[in-house]
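Aim 2 progress. For Membrane protease subunit (Stomatin/prohibitin family), the working sequence is reproduced below.
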Amino acid sequence: MSFWNKLKGELIDIIEFLDNTQDTIVYRFERHNNEIKNNAKLIVREGQMAVFVNEGQIADTFSPGTYNLNTQNLPILSTLQGWKYGFNSPFKAEVYFVSTKNFIDQKWGTKNALILNDSRFGMVEIRAFGIYSFKITDAPVFIREIVGTNQTFTTEHIQEQLKSIIVTRFSDSVGETNLPIESYAANLNELSAAIFGYMKDDFAAYGMDVTKFLIENVSMPEEVKKEIFELSRLDKIDLDKLMKLKAAKSLEAAAENPSGTAGMGIGLGAGMAMANQMTQAMAGQAQNNQTNQNAQTPPPIPGTVAYYVVIDGKQAGPFDKNSMKDLAARSVLTRETLVWKQGMSDWVLAGGQTDLQDLWTMTPPPIPKQD
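Predicted structure tokens for this construct:
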């Protein structure tokens, strides 16, 4: 082998990027004056893409594999630089290695509280945070739209922009779903799925794809949280039992207080007994009130005989003797009318009662019908 061939072989470059970080998205391969030797070897590993840029214009792209760089596998660059018949001298080009792996466990969160108008609690401030994952799907678009001329581009450079997209979509989704604020914790998966779908188009505009999105927590002011807990308990408990329990605890506290009127030897058992007595007394009072409401007619005067009379199929009375005479005079009371007085076991015909016989002897009989 001649000296020139040996020297030529030693001058052949190897272009590659071994990434020992977990957050590098794009790395620009550095060469002196950006010169690349003819037939230089390009090594693109799994999880990478190589993009050649000529004077700021994106040219050829390479997927994983090993390539000898010449006019055959650099068709766009050859056209841009005017290589009609091949080239043997070094050429200038920038080479960007773009990582296409999944960048996982990226954190997002709301910088400022979001204000929601809840139907039950009014204007409420909430905050949210979670994680997401993404990867590069279109390296030329990503370089053109995001990277620019940076030599190294990491997840830190793009975090704020992606967070802004996520928070905007979160705000829109929360407003559209119109969920009660107490329902957020039970619907985190549904909200995550809705926002995940919205962000697909947003990330695609930058040559990216969001591969995972999760809302881990939606927080709210402590006073609102406490009120929600109290309301949830009231929906589940028996209010009658709650009142009895509170009464028993009050009596127990009074019994333990020596200076209180109930503290003279009254213990827990006495307190519970008093609570039961109070409950029974309240129930008895309610029953007495109901009985008094039903007893609208006073009992008859002692020493008089009072009859109840069935008039038009309904019980009426009681009536004393004078009232019975008036009923008989108006033919409301006849011998066939059912009557009842104290001491009888059942209703009987008025005509069968000896003390009522004078009601019909003192009044004329009904006028006979004329044929």
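The CA atoms of residues 28 and 96 lie 4 Å apart. This observation will guide construct design in the next reporting period.
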